[in-house]
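== Folding task for one protein ==

=== Format: two labelled lines per protein ===

==== Paired sequence and structure tokens ====
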Amino acid sequence: MIQVDDLQLRIGNRTILNKLHFEVQRGEIFGVIGPNGSGKSTLLKLLSGLEKPTRGTVYLDGRPVNSYSRKKLATWLAVLQQSSLPSIGFTVKEVVEMGRYPYQNWMGEEAEDVRPLISSILDKLRLEKLQDRMLSEISGGEKQRAALGKVMAQEPRLLMLDEPTTYLDIGTQVELMTWIQAWKKESDLTVVVVLHDLNLAAQYCDRILLLHQGEVVEVGTAEQVMKEDLLQRVYGVKPYVLKHPVLGVPQILL
């Protein structure tokens, strides 16, 4: 699904990302972790074609990402940003419906009736009772659910998420990641997600990329990446790595 070949980004004399080589397989949840300033969000912008690299190429489905038109790319690639939706003057339902924009003609019409799809998404994300509420009237967690509904309405094959659990309580974090995991299984979705929480990354990601100072430190399963010496070198603190009592994946204590 994604192939990254010798990717580099320089801004002035500063190298933001350097010598990145990795692949994301179709149908997996691929996590990106690393300290603040390691280049995680910038990498996502390069993968989605929002920024152009100084050197190297990002291939999506075998083609350079910048060879796609933005509207064509939007029919199968969706991006969920870090922050919740701003309190703009739209209802929750209207925001979810915005995800259909790439499929509409110049009059804002589609060939097929998408009302059943929108209703299904509102029901799945427990937004039915909120659908007529304005964004200014709902909580941050509810806004993030509406934002997820918008990208679900887009029906992508590839989903990129930039720290989607930031500012959410632990219950909402788990709920959001569980929805994404279920969606992946139902539709063979490929997911690239930037996460700060290493425990969430270990629980939900099939493979993880660890970035430090703009370079790849390790790519692999949670067991391969979540090693005490590796995490101490990258994050500068000594962690204790234990096994999750149910899932068996690494979990971090500080």
Summary: The first helix runs from residue 40 to 47. The CA atoms of residues 117 and 176 lie 19 Å apart.
